[in-house]
Design a protein that fits this description.
Elements: H1 13-22, E1 32-35, E2 40-42, E3 56-59, H2 62-67, E4 71-72, H3 83-97, H4 104-111, H5 115-126, H6 130-147, H7 152-158, H8 164-171, H9 179-182, E5 190-198, E6 201-207, E7 212-217, H10 221-227, E8 232-235, H11 238-252, H12 268-279, E9 286-287, H13 288-294, H14 301-309, E10 322-323, H15 336-351
Parallel strand pairs: 2-4, 5-8, 9-10
Antiparallel strand pairs: 1-2, 1-3, 5-6, 6-7
Helix pairs in contact: 3-4, 3-6, 4-5, 6-7, 12-14, 13-14
C-alpha cells in the first residue's frame, strides 16, 4: 500500500472503478467503495467478489460511507489500519513537523521497530526512504519559498537546509537552473536557440550550457523571450549545432533520448513526474493514474496531469506517451495529430 499521499486529491469515478477492478492496494486509504446492494463499504483492494458497477458509489472517507448508511466490510476491514500503516503515518507526521533532519533511529524508536526493518517498511509503503522523503519535503519548501519571492538564502535556511551547500547537494542530479534563476526569468543565463523545419512542422529548440530548456512546435523567439525575459538569447552558434542535430534526430526518429541533457525547472513534484515520463520505454504508453502511482503519489492523478502539461521540452520529456485510462489519446499541447504521429513512429522503431 502506498501511504505517502493520502491527501484528498480527487480521482474521478472512472479511475476509481478501474482501481477497484485491478484490486490495486496502492490506493487503499485514498477512498472507499460503497456497495449499496449489500450495505457495506470496502477498501479498493477488497478480495471479495466484485460488485456490479451500478451498485457502487465512492466515498472519500470511512465517515462519509457510514454517514450514507453503510457498514465496514468484515473481509477487508477498511475501518482498521494495520500496525505497520500506523507506524508509517506517525513517521510521516514527525518528518513534516520537524525543523531539522530526524535520524532513522529516532523514527524507528518512536514506531517500535528496528531501524533496518523500519527503513524497509517505510520505503515499501512510500516509495522513498525516510531520509529521501525528508529531503523531498525540504526541497519543496525551499522551492515554494523561492516562488513566493523570498531571497535564496532565507528560503534555504527556512526550509531546513543548514547551509546553502546542502541545498545544492540535494539538488544534484535534479533537472533545473540555479535557484536564483528559477524566480528571475533566467537572469544571468545564456540561451541559444533555433527554429528548424521538421516533418512535424516548425520546431523551436533552445538550450543553456547545461541542456535543452525548451522544445516546442509552432513557436519562435517571441514566445521564448516571454518565458525567459531576463536571459540573454542568442540565435544559433557552432557550440549549439551538435546538440540541435541530436534533438532533430530524436524528433524525426523518436526513441530513447535520455542521453540528451536537459535544463528545465519545476517543483519537486513536477520533476518527479518528468523523470518518470523519461522512464517510459519508446513504443509504450502509461495512464495518468499509473504515472501518479509510480512516483508514490497515487492520489495525485490530476496533479500528474497538470505536471504533464507543464512540460517545457516536448518529445525529450515524452509527455506524448501518456494517454487516458480508457486508451484514448487525450490532449496534447501541440495537437493530437503530432501526438499520434510520435506514437506511431515509436511503435514502428521498436519493430525494427
Amino acid at each position: 500500500m502506498t501511504l505517502a499521499m493520502n491527501i484528498n486529491r480527487p480521482l474521478d469515478d472512472e479511475a476509481r472503478w478501474q482501481i477497484v477492478l485491478d484490486r490495486d492496494r496502492r490506493f487503499d486509504g485514498d477512498f472507499v467503495m460503497g456497495v449499496h446492494s449489500t450495505g457495506i463499504y470496502c477498501r479498493p483492494s477488497c478480495p471479495a467478489r466484485q460488485p456490479k458497477r451500478e451498485n457502487v458509489s465512492f466515498y472519500a472517507s470511512n465517515e462519509e460511507a457510514e454517514a450514507a448508511g453503510l457498514r465496514p466490510c468484515l473481509r477487508c476491514r477498511p475501518d482498521s489500519a494495520s500496525r505497520e500503516e500506523e507506524a508509517v503515518f506517525r513517521a510521516i507526521a514527525m518528518l513534516r513537523d520537524a525543523e531539522a533532519p530526524v535520524p532513522l533511529a529516532t523514527l524507528a524508536e518512536a514506531t517500535g521497530y528496528s531501524p533496518s526493518h523500519f527503513q524497509r517498511l517505510f520505503k515499501r509503503a512510500v516509495g522513498l526512504s525516510p531520509s529521501a522523503f525528508a529531503r523531498a519535503l525540504r526541497m519543496e519548501r525551499a522551492e515554494d519559498a523561492l516562488s513566493a519571492g523570498e531571497s535564496v538564502t532565507g528560503a534555504l535556511y527556512d526550509s531546513g537546509f543548514g547551509a546553502s551547500s546542502r541545498f545544492y547537494e540535494a539538488s544534484e542530479g535534479r533537472m533545473g537552473m540555479a535557484p536564483s534563476a528559477w524566480r528571475d526569468g533566467g537572469r544571468g543565463v545564456t540561451i541559444r536557440w533555433a527554429v528548424v523545419t521538421t516533418t512535424l512542422g516548425d520546431m523551436l529548440v533552445a538550450a543553456t550550457d547545461r541542456g535543452v530548456c525548451r522544445l516546442s512546435f509552432d513557436e519562435g523567439p517571441d514566445e521564448l523571450s516571454a518565458r525567459f525575459p531576463n536571459a540573454q538569447l542568442i540565435e544559433g552558434g557552432e557550440t549549439f549545432a551538435d546538440l540541435l542535430g541530436e534533438v532533430v534526430g530524436a524528433v524525426e526518429q523518436p526513441g530513447d533520448s535520455r542521453s540528451i541533457p536537459l535544463d528545465v525547472q519545476g517543483t519537486a513534484f513536477q520533476e518527479a513526474v518528468w523523470r518518470e515520463l523519461r522512464r517510459i520505454p519508446p513504443g509504450e504508453t502509461r495512464s495518468y493514474a499509473e504515472i501518479a502511482a509510480a512516483i508514490g503519489k497515487p492520489g495525485a492523478v490530476r496533479a500528474a496531469g497538470s505536471a504533464n502539461g507543464a512540460n517545457n521540452v516536448a518529445v525529450l520529456i515524452p509527455c506524448h506517451r501518456v494517454i487516458r485510462s480508457d486508451g484514448s489519446l487525450g490532449g496534447y499541447a501541440y495537437g493530437e495529430d503530432i501526438k499520434r504521429e510520435l506514437l506511431r513512429r515509436e511503435r514502428d522503431q521498436t519493430k525494427l
